[in-house]
Design a protein that fits this description.
This protein has 336 residues and is mostly helical. The chain contains 15 helices and no strands.
Length: 336
């Protein structure tokens, strides 16, 4: 009896029902709790900012692909939708609509499609859009609306400093953490999200719930989030232990700013993060170190956006150095 023919085909040889589109929409589902908190805290302004970013990202991707690149339209894959949500999550409520549109154009047109689209971009598109707006419009990007009592009003009338901003400014003018503690929100408020800041960094609880959902769905692994937050906790803990009057405790650093948002939702971007577990840890530790250095010694109170973009540039080198051994290759024997 003749044996069945051997079929030789190109990789990949292991198939799964998990598609890029399904993964993208899992990420969207994970961000729903944080979005709901932003609606509760900032009201209609949060909805307007998020809707503007999402619609403009989808529109720019469609127009550029159809009329400039003349390639397949990919707005249904969910990547532009995520870019819009993440961009909005990194912006203050009440930011002028035209600025959000400009940020969306930079994120989609420059950071994503100019590199070839999904799977080819080097840097996280939403963070590129956010940093562009921060550098171009620093005043508007650092006006943080406070929570509104009436969620049907716009949250652009009353502004206040973020937790990290209060600490940065207070210490620069000779204050101590004991003196500044009265101006800082409680750890519980930081955890729940009743404070000022960007839309998506409000509630640590909501972000953690979404992050755990992503881990449970195996969209991401624990390596990058845990390493980023662990590195930040260790470094800030050392400084706080050495001088608690001039450095905030690690819990404040973890719960404030975009630490959790960046660790779970942006540093873990499948396209711009390393592919191996060892590479992920090196990548994440670098993000944590750079973030803490910027927060403690830089001119900006927050630094995780810059840290992620800097480490994005090192991902090709990390992937090359920590490239896994090819199946079937032999380990070189040591010469005694």
């Amino acid at each position: 009896m003749d044996s069945p023919p051997i079929v030789i085909s190109a990789s990949p040889h292991v198939h799964s029902d998990r598609t890029s589109k399904r993964i993208m929409y899992d990420v969207v589902i994970a961000m729903v709790p944080a979005f709901l908190v932003s609606l509760y805290v900032f009201g209609v302004s949060a909805f307007i900012a998020t809707a503007t970013a999402v619609v403009s990202c989808l529109l720019f991707e469609y127009l550029i692909q159809k009329y400039l690149l003349r390639t397949e339209i990919t707005i249904a894959d969910g990547s532009a939708l995520i870019t819009g949500i993440l961009l909005a999550f990194n912006l203050p409520a009440g930011l002028p609509i035209w600025m959000i549109v400009v940020g969306s154009l930079v994120a989609i047109g420059i950071a994503k499609l100019s590199f070839g689209g999904l799977g080819f971009n080097i840097f996280n598109p939403a963070l590129v859009g956010r940093v562009f707006l921060l550098v171009s419009f620093p005043v508007q990007m650092t006006l943080w609306p406070t929570a509104v009592e009436n969620n049907t009003t716009l949250a652009d009338a009353i502004t206040g400093a973020t937790t990290l901003g209060i600490i940065k400014d207070g210490l620069q003018f000779g204050g101590t953490m004991t003196e500044l503690s009265a101006q800082l929100p409680s750890h519980l408020n930081l955890f729940l999200g009743i404070t000022g800041g960007s839309l998506g960094e409000m509630s640590a609880l909501a972000l953690l719930l979404g992050g755990l959902y992503l881990i449970a769905r195996k969209v991401i692994t624990w390596h990058i989030p845990v390493a980023v937050l662990g590195t930040m906790a260790l470094m800030t803990g050392i400084f706080w232990w050495a001088d608690p009057q001039h450095y905030a405790n690690p819990l404040i650093h973890i719960l404030s700013g975009g630490a959790i948002l960046g660790a779970f939702y942006m540093a873990t971007d499948l396209v711009t993060s390393p592919v191996t577990k060892k590479g992920m840890l090196i990548f994440a530790i670098g993000i944590g170190v750079i973030t803490v250095v910027i927060r403690l010694f830089g001119s900006y109170p927050e630094g995780i956006s810059f840290a992620i973009l800097i480490m994005n540039a090192f991902v090709p080198l990390i992937n090359k150095y920590f490239k896994p051994r090819r199946f079937g290759s032999k380990i070189k024997a040591k010469i005694v």
